[in-house]
TrEMBL record:
This is MFS transporter. The chain crosses the membrane at residues 45-66, 78-98, 104-126, 138-158, 164-183, 220-238, 250-270, 282-301, 307-333, 345-365, 371-390. Residues 211-396 form the Major facilitator superfamily (MFS) profile domain. It comes from Kineosporia babensis. The lineage of its organism: Bacteria, Bacillati, Actinomycetota, Actinomycetes, Kineosporiales. The keyword Metal-binding does not apply. Gene3D superfamilies: MFS general substrate transporter like domains (1.20.1250.20).
Length: 396
């Protein structure tokens, strides 16, 4: 059994990590783009976040592969956690000092690269150190940490009073929350010689490892369905529900808070229940179908009351899904020596939907199906992502 102190350190470090991701994404980058390029703020923000997303997709499995092969006395994972936190803090300082969009792009790309090194290493510590029967509980703690990190990062960024102060506060939060984990990481050095690195190793054969392939596909589909709602919630409230702009913006924040609270509750509860029962798939499939039901409610009943109900149901479903699906994924990794790299490949399934969701939504809206069509598609995708979990054979 992993000590509570170790789990708490991992929990705190994860909060700081996700604060570093989402404080800029939800607040500061948009404010900065408007300040530096007021006439082209939308395109400027798209450029900054688009380059960042591309860097994230590429670097996470790459850092994971290097982490797997690290032979330092400090351990395999801890050097990348420390380096990622330090690099992320430096990137925040550079963002605070950015004077044009080009500098913003470079600094945010550095932030994504550094924070993904930290993410790859932290994620891999779970299969490294946590027994299979406890991974649902730890996965729940990490899901809660992610939600709290999003809230904390956005809150800190919004409360500091200036863009530069927001970045400085996030840098401090990132470093401070990493310290407890660093002091009690229990990371063990790699004693055997590492396998040689090859770019071809990033391809995991679906024929040789079908359960890993199904896990990737189902996570991709679930995140794609969720992204279609999250990215277009504001426009949905404005255009489908008919709220004025100011009221729509405040409602988005309130719905996100309710969604986050429900996610926190069900993530830990779902992970703990999964560990105690010793089953994963029934929780992943069930929570995925609950998520699909919430998306269908948004599609069919465009009212404020339905949006509140939908936020609650979505949080209940996606919280449990996130925790238990992570535990399931750790049980289908192809090779012990490539855990961090393979988890990085899985993380692509969470990042890629953020790029594809706008393309799908634009296609649906172009044929005049409206947001009922967008969210109906999201519900269908989520049902498919849930049902296909049944194709995973090696995990009960």
């Amino acid at each position: 059994m992993r000590s509570r102190l170790w789990v708490f350190g991992l929990f705190l470090a994860s909060i700081g990590l996700w604060s570093g991701f989402f404080g800029p994404i939800q607040v500061l980058l948009a404010q900065q783009a408007e300040a530096l390029a007021p006439e082209h703020k939308e395109s400027a923000l798209s450029l900054v976040t688009g380059v960042g997303a591309a860097v994230s997709t590429v670097t996470n499995p790459f850092w994971g592969a290097l982490s797997d092969r690290t032979t330092l006395r400090l351990g395999r994972r801890l050097p990348w956690v420390l380096g990622g936190a330090a690099g992320g803090a430096v990137a925040m300082l550079l963002l605070a000092a950015a004077e044009n969009i080009g500098q913003m792009v470079a600094a945010w790309a550095l932030a994504q690269a550094a924070l993904n090194a930290m993410l790859a290493a932290l994620t891999a510590t779970v299969p490294d150190q946590v027994p299979v029967g406890e991974r649902g509980t730890v996965g729940g703690a990490l899901a809660v940490a992610q939600t709290l990190g999003v809230v904390a990062g956005s809150g800190v960024a919004a409360a500091t009073g200036s863009i530069a102060a927001g970045y400085l506060a996030l840098a401090a939060l990132l470093l401070i929350t990493t310290v407890p984990y660093a002091l009690n990481s229990r990371d063990t050095p790699r004693t055997e010689p590492p396998t040689s690195f090859a770019w071809s190793s990033f391809w995991v054969s679906p024929r040789a490892h079908p359960d890993f392939a199904w896990a990737w596909i189902t996570r991709f589909l679930m995140n794609l369905g969720n992204a279609l709602l999250i990215l277009y919630l504001l426009y949905y409230l404005q255009d489908a529900v008919g709220l004025p702009d100011d009221e729509a913006e405040s409602t988005v924040f309130a719905l996100t808070a309710v969604y986050g609270a429900c996610t926190v509750l069900t993530a830990f509860a779902g992970g703990l229940a999964s560990d105690r029962i010793g089953r994963r798939k029934v929780f992943v499939i069930g929570s995925g179908l609950v998520t699909a039901a919430a998306l269908l409610l948004f599609a069919l009943v465009p009212t404020v009351l339905a949006a509140w109900v939908g936020a609650v149901v979505l949080g209940i479903g996606f919280g449990a899904y996130t925790a238990v699906d992570f535990a399931l994924i750790t049980q289908v990794l192809p090779a012990e020596d490539d855990r961090a790299k393979d988890l990085g490949v899985i993380n692509i399934a969470a990042a890629l939907p953020q790029v594809l969701a706008p393309v799908l939504a634009a296609a649906v809206l172009a044929v005049d199906l409206g947001y009922a069509g967008v969210f109906g598609l999201a519900a269908g995708i989520s049902v498919l992502g849930s049902v296909l979990v049944g194709q995973i054979r090696s995990v009960p």
